[in-house]
Amino acid sequence: MVVFDTLAELESYEGVFPEIRTIIDVMDRSLPYDQGKGEYDTPEKSNVRYIIDTFLTSDKGFDGSGTDGKRIMEIVLEGDEILSIDGSVFRMQPGRFLIYSSESTVKRGVSYALPEHTKAVRFVF
């Protein structure tokens, strides 16, 4: 299952993915915006962790890596990228999120037009 929507609608998915409450709390505190590249646990010590990436998009992009048996929610914080999940293509911009299985084939960091500095957070749950 792949979910692609705007952050304004994030709360509406809480019934399907209870971990979204933790993700909303982390995003409301602006933690991913203020933190640098790396892997972090949530302050609530829940089963949600997050990874902040910074990269320059390109015409080739790069393969995404996942954690087996988990879901990933990707949110672009700055910049713009094209992300491919099992052959479906999504334009990721600030204000949008994408939820997908870590077992999916993922291509990240493809440029929409010109290469662009991008910062993204991936929540793993």
Give a structural overview.
Helices cover 10% and strands 44% of the residues. Strands 1-8-5-10-3-2 form a 6-stranded antiparallel sheet, with no helix packed on it. It has 125 residues and is mostly beta strands. The chain is globular, with a radius of gyration of 13 Å. It has one domain (3-124): Jelly Rolls, CATH 2.60.120. The two termini are 14 Å apart. Strand 2 and strand 3 (49-56) form a beta hairpin.
Describe the secondary-structure layout.
Layout: E1 3-6, H1 20-28, H2 31-34, E2 38-41, E3 49-56, E4 62-63, E5 71-78, E6 81-85, E7 88-92, E8 96-101, E9 106-110, E10 117-124
Antiparallel strand pairs: 1-8, 2-3, 3-10, 4-9, 5-8, 5-10, 6-7, 6-9
Q: What is the CATH level 1 assignment?
A: Mainly Beta
Question: Main beta sheet: strand number and arrangement?
Answer: 6 strands, antiparallel
Q: Total number of helical segments?
A: 2
Total tally of structural domains? 1
CATH architecture: Sandwich
Please state the average pLDDT score: 93
Structural class by SSE content: mainly beta
- DSSP, total strands: 10
Q: What is the CATH homology-level superfamily?
A: YhcH/YjgK/YiaL
